[in-house]
């Protein structure tokens, strides 16, 4: 059930020339949207519950002052509110993995990936060689890493996914799953539960704002180390969040920065520019819809008072 949003939508239509319309705080859905079965099964397999997992990540955020300081520093560097990073952590560690009790475990794992010898490839073809194919020439003029990798994903979807090209049969699966997750499809890593393709898509932003070296698709170990290291991963999380907020402002005309649940939703589902473009197209055709939270973002908004007590 969707709560009434007529006032906000009327403002959206009445004031397009005055800039992006602020999305009000709170959930649009009165009840939590359905949680995917995979999340439920993973939680049951560990004999845990969503509430127990939420409480674990909440307590880590509330009790670890060092982590709080790191989150605040990352938020300042990217011009976002710390609550957005906290919200993404809550969503990931409630519905995807359990929070580790000690950040040191992540540091140890990060170091191990540097010497792992892992590579981004499919059937012996590295991703660097793959994106050098002529089908990807259209992406050469991309203005930043987000645009570049989004273009490459689109080319893969339209020209390679589920097809046999030049004698190679490509699975009917996402670009990221085929080339960027050699351990097993769907795997994300580290405190922020990022995947390698997401990290590569914001590498230039992180380089400019945090000073970390730009990531290279030819060095998979370096990419994994960056998303496993708790210090670095917070920068990548902040860059992803910054990108989502900017996408909805620039493309859909909505300022989502006051709604942590919507921001967390985009962290969960990805493709902020594509989603913003689809929402903008719907609204141009008369649907009059605000951005909405999914199950993951709904929890963040529902628990907002508790989280803001940590990050006022």
Characterization of this structure:
There is one protein chain. By secondary structure, the protein is mainly alpha-helical. It has 17 helices and six strands. It has helices at 6-14, 37-45, 50-63, 65-78, 82-95, 104-113, 127-130, 145-160, 175-179, 196-201, 203-210, 220-228, 230-252, 260-269, 272-284, 295-302, 304-310; strands at residues 21-22, 121-122, 125-126, 164-165, 168-169, 254-255. It has a two-stranded parallel sheet. The protein has a two-stranded antiparallel sheet with strand order 2-3. α5 (82-95) packs across α14 (260-269), α6 packs antiparallel against α12 (220-228) and α13 (230-252) crosses α14. The protein is globular. The chain starts with 5 loop residues before the first helix and ends with a helix. Residues 1-18 have low confidence and may be disordered.
- Rounded to an integer, what's the Rg over CA atoms? 20 Å
Q: Based on CA inertia axes, which overall geometry fits?
A: globular
Q: If strands are numbered along the chain, what order do they take across the biggest sheet?
A: 1-6
For the termini, the CA-CA separation is 30 Å
Strand proportion? under 5%
Question: How many E-type strands?
Answer: 6
| Mean pLDDT reading | 88
């Amino acid at each position: 059930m969707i709560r009434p949003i007529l006032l906000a939508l009327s403002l959206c239509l009445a004031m397009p020339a005055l800039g992006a319309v602020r999305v009000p705080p709170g959930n649009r859905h009165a009840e939590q949207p359905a949680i995917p079965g995979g999340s439920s099964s993973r939680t049951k397999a560990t004999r845990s519950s969503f509430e127990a997992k939420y409480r674990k990540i909440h307590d880590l955020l509330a009790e670890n002052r060092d982590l709080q300081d790191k989150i605040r520093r990352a938020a300042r560097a990217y011009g976002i509110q710390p609550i957005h990073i906290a919200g993404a952590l809550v969503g990931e560690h409630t519905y995807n993995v359990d929070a580790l009790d000690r950040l040191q475990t992540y540091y140890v794992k990060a170091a191990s990936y540097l010497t792992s010898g892992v590579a981004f490839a499919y059937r012996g073809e590295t991703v660097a060689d793959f994106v050098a194919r002529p089908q990807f020439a259209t992406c050469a003029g991309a203005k930043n890493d987000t645009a570049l990798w989004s273009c490459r994903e689109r080319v893969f979807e339209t020209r390679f996914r589920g097809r046999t090209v030049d004698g190679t049969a490509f699975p009917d699966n996402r670009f990221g799953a085929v080339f960027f997750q050699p351990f097993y499809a769907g795997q994300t890593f580290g405190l922020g539960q990022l995947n390698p393709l997401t990290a590569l898509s914001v590498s230039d932003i992180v380089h400019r704002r945090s000073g970390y070296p730009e990531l290279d698709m030819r060095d998979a170990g370096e990419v994994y180390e960056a998303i496993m290291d708790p210090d670095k991963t917070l920068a990548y999380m902040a860059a992803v969040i910054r990108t989502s907020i900017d996408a909805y402002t620039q493309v859909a005309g909505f300022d989502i920065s006051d709604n942590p649940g919507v921001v967390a939703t985009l962290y969960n589902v990805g493709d902020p520019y594509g989603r913003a473009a689809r929402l903008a197209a719907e609204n141009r055709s008369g649907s009059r819809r605000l951005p909405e939270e999914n199950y993951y973002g709904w929890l963040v908004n529902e628990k907002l008072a508790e989280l803001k007590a940590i990050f006022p």
